[in-house]
Amino acid sequence: VQLTNQQPTNQVTTSGFQIVITPLDEPITLTPDLIKKDLPGTTIGNPLAINLDSKGKGMMFSSNNENFGGKSYEIWFVKDNTLYQITSYADFATTLKQIIGTWKFN
Description:
The chain contains 2 helices and 6 strands; from the N terminus they run ββαββββα. With about 110 residues, the chain is mainly beta.
């Protein structure tokens, strides 16, 4: 599943984010090494372990995702054997953290 928050194509913006949701066959613990193994060439800057709503464990980090202008910010976490990959523009990182901070899981 991929969800994207997009602006009209005639506007240039550095706001918005994309969420990719992937079911996992087995539990994993996200680490910079695991992400680099799965996505060689991905830059992982300033990785920070996170715990969303005491239920989703993962990482947030700066990255080099070309789909977001080469300077991006990512939040990856796992909950109930599902991987959530949230990617945004680096300039949108503060807002993204605020949005994610409001998420609650049942």
